[in-house]
Design brief:
566 residues; OB fold (Dihydrolipoamide Acetyltransferase, E2P); five-stranded antiparallel sheet; 10 helices; 17% helix; 37% strand; elongated; disordered N terminus
C-alpha cells in the first residue's frame, strides 16, 4: 500500500510497520486522505488572505483552523482590543504567510491581514478621489505622520494654505484629507489637506466676490501683520488694511491693534477686479472724530490728555479716542534744558496743555505744556535791566561762548569776545561747566528769548592805558604764537598780541614769513603803531634790529590796514 508522504513524515518506525498490514478498505481511506491533503495544498497559496475558524484560545494564542492538515497559531494581541471579544467559533480573516513551516505547521498573521485589507480599502478611496479622516500622531522630517488605519505622511506644504511654524501643536488633531500618492512596494502613502482647503476656498471665494462692493462691511480674519498694515482673509480673497486706515488716531505699529487670527469687521474702500486687490478700512466703520474738532478744542483751550507716544522731537497726547496733539520739545518747558522729551514725561502720563494751533484738514493739533505756567520772559526787561550785574551757573560751553543759567528757564550767552579783554581761543580757557560767575547784562531780545552777557565789562578796559604804556618806539620781548601768509603774531607784555607784518620781519626782503620766524620763537621788536579803537598793535623786528628812532619809524608809514588780513 502506498502511504501518503505527509503521513510517513509524521510516523515513527512502529507506526509505519503497522500500516504495512492494512486491509484494502483501510488503504482506500488513506488514499482519500492523501487526495484531500493534495487538494488542500493546491487550494492554499502563501501571501494571501484566507478565512479561518477559531477552535481554541490559550496562553495568549488563538488556534485557527483554515481547513488544512494542520492549524495555525495567532497571537490574540493581533485581534481588535487585544482579543478581548474573541471567542471560539469566530470566523476570522488571516494572512497565510507559509503553507507549512519546518515543523509542518501553517504560519498565519492577523495583523498582516488587517494591513492588507486596509491598504486595499485605501486604494479604493484613492482611486475614487474620496476624502479620508486621519489623526496626527507625530512630527516627521518635512511634515507630519498621520494615522489613517496605516501610517501616512502629510508634507508641510500640504498641511494648510500657508506655512505653519509650530507643527507640534497639531499632534492629536483630526483632519479631513485626500490621498495624493501611494506606493505599495515601499508601503508609502502621501496625504494632502491643502487640496480640500483650496476647494473650500474656491467655494467661499465665489460668495465673497458677490460682497465686493465699495462701502460694504465685511468680516475677515487677520492673516499676516507687516509694518505698513495687516492682510485680512475675507474668505477666498485677501485684503490689505493699511496702517493709516486702522484708526483716526496714531498707530505706531499694526501689532499694537491686531494679532494673527483676530476676527475683524472692516469696510471695503476699493476693489480692483482685474488685479484682485482689495483695500480695507477700519476707522471708516466709525464716525470721524475730527469733524467737529474745532468746536471741541478751539485754540487757547486748556486740555488734559494722556501721553501715547514719545519721539526725539516731542510727545503725542491723546485728547480723546482718535484725536492726538503734538507737544513739540520746544513747547514743553520755558527752560531750554530739555534734552529729550522722555526726561519730562513717560507714556501713560496725564498732562495739561494749551491748544496752540489747529489744522482740521491736515488733522494736526499743536499743544504747549509750558504755556500752562507763567512765562519768565514776560517781565525779563524789568528783572534784568541792561547794565545790571547778575550771577549765574555755567550750563554749557561752545566754540563761540558760554551759556549761563540765571534762573529756571532763563539763560544768557556770554560770547567769547566778551569773556576777557585778552584774546582767548576757546571759552574753556576761562570757564568750566557749573562755575558760578558774575556778569553784566549787555542786551535783551525778549521776542527770541535771548540775553547777552559780558564778563570783561566788569573790569576796566586795559586798552584805555595801552597807548600810554606802549608808545611808538617802545621795545618789547615776545613769543611768536601764529604765522600767516601776511606776517606773524607775537604775544608780549600782559597777554597782548601784536602783528608783525611780513615787511617788518627782517631788514632783508622776506616773501614767506616762515623763512624768518616760527611758532615759539623768542623775538625782540619795537611798537610801531597802536590802534585803540580796533584794539590792535603793530610791531617791527626790523625797527628793533636797525634801532630806528621815532622819526624813522614814522617814515616807514606802516599801513594799519594789514590788520584786516587776520
Amino acid at each position: 500500500m502506498k502511504i501518503p508522504k505527509e503521513l510517513l513524515e509524521k510516523m515513527n518506525e512502529d507506526d509505519k510497520s503497522e500500516l504495512e498490514g492494512l486491509t484494502a478498505t483501510e488503504e482506500a481511506v488513506y488514499q482519500e486522505m492523501e487526495q484531500y491533503f493534495n487538494e488542500s495544498l493546491g487550494r492554499f497559496k502563501a501571501s494571501q488572505i484566507i478565512m479561518g475558524k477559531v477552535i481554541a484560545i490559550s496562553k495568549g494564542l488563538a488556534t485557527v483552523d483554515v481547513g488544512f492538515k494542520s492549524e495555525g497559531m495567532v497571537s490574540v494581541s493581533e485581534f481588535p482590543e487585544n482579543g478581548k471579544n474573541l471567542q471560539i467559533g469566530d470566523e476570522v480573516e488571516v494572512y497565510l504567510e507559509k503553507v507549512e513551516d519546518n515543523d509542518g505547521n501553517v504560519v498565519l498573521s492577523k495583523e498582516k491581514a488587517n494591513k492588507i485589507k486596509i491598504w486595499d480599502d485605501l486604494v479604493k478611496t484613492y482611486e475614487a478621489d474620496e476624502i479620508i479622516q486621519g489623526t496626527v500622531i507625530a512630527k516627521a522630517k518635512g511634515g507630519l505622520t498621520v494615522d489613517i488605519g496605516l501610517k501616512a505622511f502629510l508634507p508641510g506644504s500640504q498641511i494648510d494654505l500657508r506655512p505653519i511654524r509650530n507643527l507640534e501643536k497639531l499632534i492629536s488633531e483630526k483632519f479631513d484629507m485626500k490621498i495624493i500618492k501611494m506606493n505599495k512596494k515601499r508601503g508609502n502613502i502621501v496625504l494632502s489637506r491643502r487640496i480640500l482647503l483650496e476647494e473650500q476656498r474656491k467655494q467661499i471665494r465665489t460668495g465673497t466676490l458677490e460682497k465686493m462692493g465699495e462701502g460694504n462691511l465685511i468680516e475677515g480674519i487677520v492673516k499676516n501683520i507687516t509694518e505698513y498694515g495687516v492682510f485680512i482673509d475675507l474668505g477666498g480673497i485677501d485684503g490689505l488694511l493699511h496702517i493709516t486706515d486702522m484708526s483716526w488716531g496714531r498707530v505706531n505699529h499694526p501689532s499694537e491693534m491686531f494679532s494673527i487670527g483676530d476676527k475683524v469687521t472692516v469696510m471695503i474702500l476699493k476693489y480692483d477686479k482685474e488685479k484682485e486687490r482689495v483695500s480695507l478700512g477700519l476707522k471708516q466703520t466709525s464716525p470721524d472724530p475730527w469733524v467737529d474738532v474745532d468746536s471741541k478744542f478751539p485754540v487757547e483751550t486748556k486740555i488734559k490728555g494722556k501721553v501715547v507716544s514719545i519721539t526725539d522731537y516731542g510727545v503725542f497726547v491723546e485728547l480723546e479716542k482718535g484725536i492726538e496733539g503734538l507737544v513739540h520739545i520746544s513747547e514743553m518747558s520755558w527752560s531750554r534744558h530739555v534734552k529729550h522729551p522722555s526726561k519730562m514725561v513717560a507714556i501713560g502720563d496725564e498732562v495739561e496743555a494749551l491748544v496752540l494751533t489747529l489744522d482740521k484738514e491736515k488733522k494736526r493739533i499743536s499743544l504747549g505744556m509750558k504755556q500752562i505756567e507763567p512765562n519768565p520772559w514776560d517781565k525779563i526787561e524789568d528783572k534784568y535791566p541792561i547794565g545790571t550785574e547778575v550771577e549765574g551757573t555755567v550750563r554749557n560751553l561752545t566754540d563761540f561762548g558760554a551759556f549761563v543759567e540765571l534762573e529756571d528757564g532763563v539763560d544768557g550767552l556770554i560770547h567769547i569776545s566778551d569773556l576777557s579783554w585778552k584774546k582767548i581761543k576757546h571759552p574753556s580757557e576761562a570757564l568750566k561747566k557749573k562755575d558760578r560767575i558774575a556778569s553784566v547784562v549787555l542786551s535783551i531780545d525778549k521776542d527770541n528769548c535771548r540775553i547777552s552777557l559780558g564778563v570783561k565789562q566788569l573790569l576796566p578796559d586795559p586798552w584805555d592805558k595801552i597807548a600810554g604804556n606802549y608808545p611808538i618806539g617802545t621795545e618789547v620781548s615776545g613769543t611768536i604764537i601764529k604765522v600767516t601768509s601776511f606776517g606773524a603774531f607775537a604775544e608780549f607784555g600782559d597777554g597782548l598780541e601784536g602783528l608783525i607784518h611780513v615787511s617788518q620781519l627782517s631788514s632783508e626782503k622776506i616773501t614767506d614769513p616762515e623763512e624768518a620766524v616760527k611758532i615759539d620763537d623768542e623775538i625782540k621788536a619795537k611798537v610801531i603803531k597802536v590802534d585803540i579803537a580796533n584794539k590792535k598793535i603793530a610791531l617791527s623786528i626790523k625797527a628793533h634790529a636797525e634801532n630806528l628812532d621815532l622819526s624813522a619809524i614814522e617814515k616807514e608809514q606802516v599801513d594799519m590796514e594789514v590788520f584786516k588780513e587776520e
